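Lab notebook, design round three. We kept the backbone fixed and only want residue identities now. Task for the bench partner: fill in a sequence for the structure below.
Input structure tokens:
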């Protein structure tokens, strides 16, 4: 691809789905020093709908739609290459894979233990508990011995997986601290949640305000009002992984003695259901995360400015910019738009008749000349 476009020195690459299937291509282009922009899938689908291909889903039509969007749309997100964030993303993905593997191993072990010790299985079992149960079981038949041997193998896998998860969590915590992030100071935000937020958000300056960030995380409710009935419904849009991370933080705050739990109970006292109160708390956490990301970006930018030219700061990006962001971040249950730009002309100010004595007398205008040139007595 680079050889094909070598004749155009001033070029821009447009990649659809740079956070999904197009991520490997976008990252390789960025590593080679190319200029890459992200094209949202919705804009490409709209361009393909109005194209001459009758909305056919082919490679040629997709490429043409992406090129049209990139050429005619202003404000597309410019991608930047950050080695630390890419490493952070890969480690978080690997930990999620190990977590799913652990769940599967625990389920298999639970099944075998339930067959070995009927009626004594526990809901949430640990490796030490499973080891104690296996030590107390001595089956004599062939099926029981085979079942115990398989349970021991599952227990060995569980111990190995938990060891890897613990090591990855420790590594993620060190990388988040090295990044200069203060997300873990928020209640309910641990190393895994902070690492996922940093890896998926990237440059927080691409979000205009907290409402855009809440829409991206899927915590901003959608207006479903009809007539005099005012209501909002759950939004299924946005980054679902980020939404899951915020859900983990909200559940942790509710379980512990935090301000989030007090806010959650206050919403329930107002008549909201458990799920509605949880959504309100998630939106509040989303605003707090956005505020923290902006504060970290400003701190990194200030440190890079104080370092002077030629000196860099860990975590600083050449394309990151957090200037002119809103200094005050408030929380609300739903995004509220700002004041609309006036479109009507300003009202005509009329003079107060009671104030005529203090003002100068109005000038008398000369009567407009009549369209008749002759005197009034000579008009026909």
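Proposed sequence:
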């Amino acid at each position: 691809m680079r050889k094909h476009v070598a004749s155009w020195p001033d070029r821009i690459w447009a990649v659809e789905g740079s956070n999904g299937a197009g991520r490997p291509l976008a990252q390789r282009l960025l590593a080679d020093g190319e200029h890459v922009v992200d094209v949202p899938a919705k804009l490409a689908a709209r361009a393909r709908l109005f194209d001459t291909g009758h909305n056919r889903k082919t490679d040629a039509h997709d490429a043409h739609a992406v090129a049209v969007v990139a050429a005619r749309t202003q404000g597309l997100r410019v991608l930047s290459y950050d080695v630390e964030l890419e490493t952070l993303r890969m480690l978080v993905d690997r930990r999620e894979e190990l977590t799913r593997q652990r769940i599967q191993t625990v389920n298999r072990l639970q099944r075998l233990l339930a067959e070995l010790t009927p009626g004594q299985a526990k809901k949430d079992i640990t490796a030490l508990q499973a080891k104690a149960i296996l030590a107390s079981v001595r089956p004599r038949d062939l099926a029981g011995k085979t079942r115990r041997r398989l349970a021991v193998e599952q227990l060995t896998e569980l111990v190995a997986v938990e060891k890897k998860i613990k090591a990855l969590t420790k590594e993620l915590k060190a990388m988040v601290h090295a990044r200069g992030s203060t997300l873990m100071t928020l209640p309910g935000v641990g190393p895994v949640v902070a690492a996922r937020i940093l890896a998926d958000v990237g440059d927080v300056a691409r979000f205009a305000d907290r409402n855009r960030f809440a829409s991206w995380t899927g915590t901003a409710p959608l207006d479903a009002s009809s007539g005099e009935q005012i209501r909002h419904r759950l939004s299924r849009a946005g980054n679902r992984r980020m939404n899951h991370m915020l859900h983990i933080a909200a559940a942790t705050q509710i379980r512990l003695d935090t301000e989030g739990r007090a806010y959650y109970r206050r919403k329930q006292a107002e008549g909201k259901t458990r799920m509605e109160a949880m959504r309100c708390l998630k939106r509040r956490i989303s605003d707090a995360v956005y505020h923290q990301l902006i504060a970290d970006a400003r701190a990194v930018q200030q440190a890079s400015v104080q370092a002077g030219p030629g000196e860099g700061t860990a975590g600083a990006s050449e394309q990151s910019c957090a200037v002119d962001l809103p200094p005050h971040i408030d929380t609300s249950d739903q995004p509220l738009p700002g004041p609309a730009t006036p479109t009507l002309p300003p009202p005509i100010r009329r003079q107060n008749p009671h104030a005529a004595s203090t003002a100068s007398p109005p000038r008398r205008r000369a009567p407009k000349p009549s369209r008749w040139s002759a005197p009034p007595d000579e008009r026909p």
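Keep this in mind before ordering anything: Residues 142-178 form the longest helix (37 residues).
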